[in-house]
Amino acid sequence: MSEQFHFVYVGRLLKDKQIDILLKAFSLVEKDCDDCRLTIIGDGPEKNNLFKLSGELKIRKIHFTGEILDEEQTGKWIYISDAFVMPGRLGLSVVHSFCFGTPVISQRKEGHFHGEGIGYIIDGENGFLSADSNEKDMAFKMKEIISDAELSKRLRENAFAAAKNVCSIENMLNGFEQAIEFVSKK
Predict the structure, then answer these.
(1) Would you state the pLDDT for residue 1?
(2) What is the pLDDT of residue 21?
(3) Is 111 helix (H, G, I), strand (E, B) or coil?
(4) Is 139 within 8 Å of 28 (Cβ atoms)?
(5) Which residues have CB under 8 Å from 148's CB, separation 6+?
(6) N or C, which terminus of the chain has less Cβ within 10 Å?
(7) For the chain, which residues make up each domain, given as ranges?
(8) Would you list the DSSP string of the chain?
(9) How far apart, in whole angstroms, are the C-alpha atoms of residue 154 and residue 94?
(10) Under a CB-based contact definition with an 8 Å cutoff, are residues 102 and 84 in contact?
(11) Separation CA 31–CA 140 (nearest Å)
(12) Which whole-number Å values give the CA distances from 125 to 5, 82, 145, in the listed order?
């Protein structure tokens, strides 16, 4: 891998992860930046559709690794990436990425589409939330990270700080205690 800029997706290859939007966004990024790469780590029922779509979009710098269950290996991929991108349903992968100081890019969704991790993303501070089903907006967010070294550095620092200060075990335990207290008072 010799490209300077790197984006990664880690997870099951499922329709509700909306990886097709990521591929469409990356195809736009790749047209303006020859020095970037997208790695897709995972396996699932959408694998063949995603291979086909990447061919139709003529994406040159994409790497499908297949499933990697070794967390140390996936951690290395996340750590070296400029952003972890999961357009669709996401959960604790946000916390996992933040632990490596890697910002997360996802989409704004109505209702309760995303899992618990979405609440940790502060748009423009430790990641980005693009407009729903808008690959151009997602590509714009990816290009912002590529083109602005100071922004990229700040996103990384804030992602790690969020993992350390907001996503901590202590905060989780405090939340459980507060929930139990609340229920006990009723």
Answers:
(1) 62
(2) 97
(3) coil
(4) yes
(5) none
(6) C
(7) 5-185
(8) ---SEEEEEES---GGGTHHHHHHHHHHHHHH-TTEEEEEE--STTHHHHHHHHHHTT--SEEEEE----HHHHHHHHHH-SEEE--S--STHHHHHHHTT--EEEE--STT-S-GGGGG--BTTTEEEEPTT-HHHHHHHHHHHHH-HHHHHHHHHHHHHHHHHTS-HHHHHHHHHHHHHHHHH-
(9) 17
(10) yes
(11) 12
(12) 19, 14, 12
Please report, as a single letter, which amino acid is at residue 174: N
Rounded-to-10 torsion of CA 33, 39, 44, 48: 50
End-to-end alpha carbon distance in the chain: 57
Q: Which segments of the chain have a pLDDT < 70? A: 1, 111-115, 186
